[in-house]
Structures are given as C-alpha cells and as structure tokens.
Amino acid sequence: MRKFLLLLAIEIVLGILLWRCAVSAQARTPERPAQLTPIAWQRQLIDARGFAGQSSDLVLDQNGHPHIIFWRSEGTSSILYYARWDGVTWIKERVDNRFRVGNEVSIAIDDQQRPHVVYQDSINQDLYYAFREASGWQRSRLLDQGVVGRFNNVALTNTGLAISYLDETQGALKVIFGTAGTFNFGAPQFVAQTTTLDQHGLAVNSLGRPGITYHDSSSGDLMLATRNINGTWSIETVADFADVGRTSSLIYDSSDIPHVTGSVLYQGRYFLNYYAKNGASWVEESVAADVNLNLGRFHEMTLDQSDRPVVAYINQTQNQLMLARRESPHTWQIETVDTLDISRVGGIGVDAANQPIMSGYQRSFGDLIVFSGGNDWQTRIVYDNNAQPNYRPSLALNGHSPAVAFHTEATQPDSAQLVTWDGSSWADDVVAPDADAAVTTPVVFAADGQPRIAYYRTSTRQVMYATLVNNVWQAVPVATLPVGTTMGPDLVLMLAGQQEDPTLAFSIYDGTAVIKVMRGIDGVWREGTLPVPGQSAPLTPLSADYHVGGAVGVAYFNPVNNTINEARFDGQWQESIVANGVQATAISTTVARHRRDNGTPFNSPTITYYDTNSGQIIYARLADVSTWIPRVVATPSSQVNSLATVFIGNSTVRPRIAVVTVDNTVRLFGADSRDFFWSEETVVAAGAAVRSHVNLAMGDRERLTYLENGVVMHAFRTATTRAPVVPGEDSNGMVGLLKSQCMCLLSAEYCGRLLWDPRPDARSGLQAAAITAPFNEDGADMAALTKIFEATPEGQAFLDTYITHDLELTFILASDPSLTWDAFRTLENLMPGLSAFTKGQGSLVVIDQALMDQALDIWQRVEAEASPGLAAVINQYLTDTNNLQLYVGMTFDEWAATLGVNPPAVQKTFLPVVLR
Q: Which residues of 629-662 are buried (b: 16+ CB within 10 A; e: fewer)?
C-alpha cells in the first residue's frame, strides 16, 4: 500500500515517474558528453540450424577468448552444444544429446580453461551439471524434485561452484554449492521467496562469496541477496520504484562494489536501469527506455578494464541489439550493434583491449551470432625462424583449422616442415630433410583428417609423396628425374575422386619443357606427359586442379607464345588457349566440381592470372569445350607477384582471389553474383616488409598464408558467413549456410552451369535437387522425395508443376542474394523435423508457426518477382492453404497426407514447403 500511494502521488501531483525512468539520464547529461570510440562490429555465425541459440550464454577465458553454451532443435530433441574460440578457429562440440534442453543455459570457465555448464532437462524438469575434462564431457543430474532449473546461473567461488536456480514448485530462489569438476554437491539452500519466472543475476566477489539479484514477486522490488561468511543470507533492496527487477544482471568490480542492471515496468512501458552501491545506498541511472521485455535474457552486463559497466540489451520494440557503455556518472553512450531481428542476448564479456564480445539470437531464422569489436582482418605468426628464411608455403584446412607446409632453413639440414594449429598454438613437425627450397611443398588433408605432403628431394632428384602413419612420416618416390633435368618451382598435390587418389602436377626441363601428371592408384604411380616445345626452362607459373570424373586440369603460362593455356589430362591430353598476348607473373586454377542428378560429372574450370602487359588481374571461366570468358577483376597500381583463388560454396560466381603486389600489399578480391561486381579489401597494408607467396583457403571464413621477410604468416577475416561444424556434420553442405548454394535446392545441375549456360532447355525436375555427397549430405532425403511423390497421381502432378517452373524459380533466387540466403536458412530450420520424418518419426514432430511464417515470407517475395503464370500458381497455393496456416500444428505425416502423398514407413523424405 505504501508503494502504491507513493507512485500514485508522484504520478498525479508531480508527474515525474516517467522522467525518472526515461529522462533522468538526458537531464543530467552534460552539454558535451564524453565520446567513446565507436566500435567496428564483426558478426560470426556460430550455428544456423534448428533455431540455434534461443538460449545461450557466453563467457570469456583468461585470454579473452569466448566460450558459448547453447542448444538447438534436432528432430524431437534439443541438443546442447558448446563452442569456443581458440584464437584462430571455432571448436564446436556436442555436450548432451539425450533429451530436450530447457529454456536457460549457463556457463563458467575456471582457471584451467575448463567449462562448467548448467542446464535443464525440460522433459523431466530436472537440473543438470556438465563439465569438460581431457576425456570429454561428463554430466549428471543434480536435482530432480519439482520443477527446477529452468532459470539458472553458475559461477565459480573460492571453494568450487555456486549454482542458483528457481524452484518453480516451491516458488523459491535457491542455490547449490559443489566442487568444480565433480558431482559432489551439497543440499539446496533457500535464498528467498519469489514466483517470478525470469532472469536473475549471480556473481561472486573477491572473497568468493556469491550475491544474487532477483525480483520480489510480492513487493515488485529489485533485491540483492548476499551470502555471509557463516552461510546465512543478507537481503537488501536495490530499488523499489515501480515494478523493478523482473530481469536483472549482477557483477562485482575490483573493489567488490556490486553493479546491477534491472528492468523497470511502468504503465506498460519497459525501461532498463543501472544501479551501483555507494556506501549504504544505491545510485540509480537510466540506461534506455522502451525496451520491451521478453522472457529470458534481454540484457547482460559486464565491466571493462576500468571497472566501467558495459551493457548489452535488446530493444524489443525494434528487435535490435544495443550496447550501452558508461563513460561517467549519468553519461551513457548508446550504439546499435545489429538491426537484423535480434531477440535475445546470451552473454557478454570485454577483452583486454576493451572490445566487447557478446552472443545473440537472430529470431527470423534462428541463428546464433557472436558479435565482437575489432579489425576486419587478424594476423598470426605461424613460424618464425629467428632470421632463418622459409620458402614457398602451402595452406590447407583440416576442417576449419589451418595447416601450412613449407621449406625452412631453421633445421639442420634444412627440411620440409608442417605447422598445424592444435587449438592453442602452432605445432611444427619436420616432414623430411633435404627438400628443395626452390620447389613448393604442397599439403592437403584426406577425409580421415590426416595430412598428405609432396616435396622434391634434391640429392636423389626424386618427387616424393609423404603420409603420416602413427605420427611418423613415411614417404615414397613418385618420380625420379634423369641427371641434368631441372625441376620447376610449382608442385601441386591433389586427392582426386572418392578414392582420394594422390595426384601430382609439375613441370620439368630436360631439353624440352614437359608437364607431368602423376596419379597413385593402389600404390602404382601412373604418368601423363605433355611436351611443350620451344621452352628453355620448366614452365612457370603453373597451377592445377582435378575434375570430378578423374581428369586433371593444368593451367600454365607459355612464354614462347605469350599465352595462358589449360592442358587437361584424363588418359589423353586436350589443350585450349585461355588468353593470347599476355605476360603472366602469377596464375591459379580452380574447378567447381559437381555431379548431375544422373550421376554424370560436371566441371566448371576457372583460371585467374595477372597480365603484366595490361596490368590487370583476369578471372576466366570455361563456357564450353574451348571458349574461355575473361572478366577483369582489377588493375592494381602495383604488379602482382603471387595470387590464389578459391570458391565459396563451390560456386564459380562467388570467387575469392588473394594477391600480393610488389608494394607488399596483401589484397582480397571477391564477387557474389553473376554480375561480377568485384569488391576489394586490404588484408595487410603496404610496407617495408617483403611479402610474397600468398595462399588462400575457405573454411568458416577466408584464410590466407604468405611470407613476410621469410616469416610464415596467417591472416583470417574476423567476421564469418559460415558456421563451424562438429564431427558428423557436413562442412560443405547444409550446416553453415552459403548464399550461393540455395539455388541448388531447386536444381543441383544449375549449381554448376546455370549462370554460364542459361539455355531454355537447361532444366531439370525435382529429382535434380538430390545433391550428392560430399556436397550436401541431405541430398539423399531430397532424392527419396521424388520417388515418394511419383508413387501417387497427386504427387506426380506436383512434380509436373514444379518442372514447369523450376528454371524461373532458380533464376529468381540466383538474382537476389538476400532471398537466396533467407530461403536457404528457412530450409535449414525445416531439416531437424525432416530428419525425424525420414526415420519414420513424422508423427512425432509438429510444424510450428515460426516455420510457416518463414516459408510464407519466402513465397511472397518469390511471387513479387515471378511471371504472371508462376505468380498465379503461388497465389492459388497460398489461398488453398490459408497462407500456409493450414499446416501449423500438423505433424509431418499429416502434412504429406494433405498433398495426397503417402508418408513413408522407413524411406527418407523431404518437406518441400519452400519449394512448392
């Protein structure tokens, strides 16, 4: 009653309640508020499947590296995942896949870098604890009486762990203490009575004593409970103005002063306030107004290196992720982190450079994103020889982890060396002594995760192929060159075909320049030899890539004819001229490899080169048997001394080209559509350091290696557009979505040739969506769908309709990268339910509203770009299904029945909601 009368009096007589909640910061802000340096925000996609990250928590370790715990939907389950950034790559692991994980998850990191995780089994509504040790994840149920653990926090104390949680059955806030890294926990301790089911704060001061902020559901006040040395709890009121603290966050600074953020509800409006202890009283400041409250985390707080609060919060009115930094009392600098429908904050930390790092949930398509401040590109020293030079590095990725092979003089005798990132440092390994420093030492990784390396041995004149067996390098000779033969500098290693046959390409000179292709099949090396007359040395620059079907394409510069040539070997040689009248200093060839739905191979070769005559970087693609279409990428102000090319998503319309120019600048060029509008980025600025021999690879982001004054360097983009994967997920398929791959959902064949061969008869039916492994491991389900639909007249009619419009659908997607991306992500969110459907569990999974909202958005956007005929088909379909609302609440089996298709008992099928 006291509180009600006070509020009423203030509202009616003084009218200042709103001022206090929303305007106080503005009123007290100096005329010239201090300005903090704006943050250059980077987005990293951590997971994009099954509405990942609806609940996540993030914490930084002692190195400032983020660790995240989150869950995502997978069929009838919600799987708990853990991801950590090790400074170079993201490592992602499954923590628990036994049941559905509850609303909130929490994580803490101890001084041994071990994660400790708390979560709920939402089926039995029990509280679980998990930790990671050397042997893997250990987990156990802590509490199983009543509804417990849906809202939880975990923190390290000076004696172990403190876990706070809401006991919904008893309407109480409780805490349980235990020894970290064991399941030795005491009995739950009662802290306070509350029935508010939402976020509360837990933090530990320097004495190891925890404090908990919470909402007193009876008074509507924000409270702080602090544990005394005798084990009792002291309760104090932080704020009693309006309905305050339904959600709260707590942290202690270096002087053990508590800092709190709390929500404030007044007349249907939500505000975010900040409170700090000043002696015996609390100081209140307004942070933001009109931040509509949502269940769970919508704000999190940390402190920077100067003990100034940094708050991440969601503006639910506009679904934006915001950051508030306190410059001085009552002076907060607010900036927008992301505007793309971010609905939840996972956690926040600040690294040693005062750069905030936080996780958030992108609601539209269920993506888990990490937001961080920093530069667009980061660099690392891979191998420094203490002034001893390295030569001709080669880059490969093992999953997303980089490895570099090169020749080094740091060892005696000098040797071929492999350096791999092991999750904490660069681990070096001598492959073989007596390797020629003038010849590239290429490395590739096989499907088993083991490296393969080739090198040239000077003393024996042998080209060698080395494999790692039981941690010991074993090498076999591929070819022995005759006395007096000169080995060219460009040695290329490939693993060709499903059998991963080792294949090498190189050039020699024995009076005539010769291109050699060597393939090892069942331990026997087979040779293809192509003389190139008129030369006086081995051919260079030279590059090679294999074609699906077994051929090898070798791109090279012919200085006699001033041509760029491609020589293709598949048992016999075929040559074509790529360009005439050129002088090339660098060349790279990359082949987009596909199989059509009938299993026949399809290849899209490309060649990138630098022509000193024109000063241009040229990207050329084979349009038919012998016609190459060139595109000018750029005319750099300085000559290119090396370049490398990769594709994003195996797509020739999304190339990335890394170059080093003689002014020692490392650049990256890229295009993302058939229009080929080339972008340019400076990876490393020009300088006195001598740079050369660039390599490029694409994992979850673009990665480069290059030499800098003889030191092997690694550079990578801070932001990503692709998610890291865990074992069992296909890094080249659906997980980690790539925009250019979306058209493949409609026609795998067009992935290889649509944008280059748009012939009217170049179309295929729904079965063409069966993208074969390794491109997409979901392809088997899509292939099975065609057979299932063909089994009924209604299903066959659906196929006929699809075949009529598939070419137009593909062009619409291909012309709109945003639509392509959104359609693919919609399909990603369908896949967990579809996985259950393919296993005969379609009756257990229900199609929900969010999925149909996404699908409706896609179809309405397609309809807006469609021809009258296709638009009529889409509009009729949406009318018949009440804008897809007909499917909401149906099981997948019931959905199939509405289409006149019999749900399979065991066959694998695919739900084509975004395709129909």
A: ebeebbebeeebbbbbbbbbbbbbbbbbbbbbbe
